[in-house]
Amino acid sequence: MTDVATYRLDPSHIHMSEPRPHEIIWTLTNAEIASRCLHVVAELGVADAVGDESVTAAALASTCGVNADALHRVLCLMADYGVFRREGERFSHTAASQLLRTGHPMSMRAFPRMMGQSVFCDTFGQLGYSVRTGSPAIHTVEPEGLWSYYQSRPEEAQVFGEAMTAKAAADIASVLDAYDFERFGVVADIGGGRGHLLRAVLDATPNAEGVLFDLPEVIDRIDFSHHRIATQAGDFFTDALPAADAYLLMEVLHDWPDDQVVKILQAIRQAASPGGTVLVIENVLPDRDPDPRGHTLDVIMLAVTGGRERTPSQLATLFDQAGLDEPTIINTVGPLRIAAAQTRGI
Questions:
Q1: pLDDT exceeding 90 applies to what percent of the chain?
Q2: Between these two residues, 340 and 290, which has the higher pLDDT value?
Q3: CATH of the structural domain 11-104, one choice from 1.10.760.10, 1.10.10.10, 3.30.360.10, 3.40.50.300
Q4: What is the DSSP string of 29-65?
């Protein structure tokens, strides 16, 4: 596609390190193309087929069962973004493409596979519905929402679970570096999925005990045992939460609208030991500074869950309504931040 812009720009307003205005619009308009290529490459398992030596697209296409010319063109675009390295007609791994390998210890393959699922692609095709109404666009695709969609599609649900695990694994180290859990005797992970965060916390605090709380269908699928972790199945809107000294909520509250968040926090306040600590670990938005990652997640929540990413002041309001002290915001070296607060007496 040829750039046919013919207007004149004042050179005094152009910084060499910044893209020109029309380039910003062109790039954002077509950003979906690169992401869809990533979805397809991850789904096909192309990175698993690339070994230690460079390989042609034709050889990869034979392994993956796809068209050689089409795959070559897709991989050329991926290489432009640093996902694979192009050497003439051959391709090899970069640090980024290594993360698409299934067996990599920090594999993120499941994440683009998840975002390439039809439920997400169709939902973001209907984003205008969310902007017009303020309601999740997913309801135009799956009226009962994402969780209902996955209940009837166990294979796709498995990919979702793997994606959430991979995403959490990339952030856990920064959380442990930023916060000292040594003073807690019992730590409860609310909505903790497969327990990766809780296990890491307990590994770092050998005298603590843990309780992993999540929905019955999540607890039933857990495939690990840990002598210091008890599991408790339930719904945090209807069932009593475990008693603990500290409560972890890692990327849980952002799934829910404000009134539901207050209910979750109130349930924790009811269950917590006196002066219990609540640690909300999310992409807490800066009040003014740019945060493309955080604002991307915020739009995902708008379209998919009806929740949102929140600023410190927005979290403080919800904490107060639930009977918690004003949170202290703790930065990590990663994108997540920790909003830490104590429960007030009942």
A1: 80
A2: 340
A3: 1.10.10.10
A4: HTHHHHHHHHHHHHHHTHHHH--SS-EEHHHHHHHHT
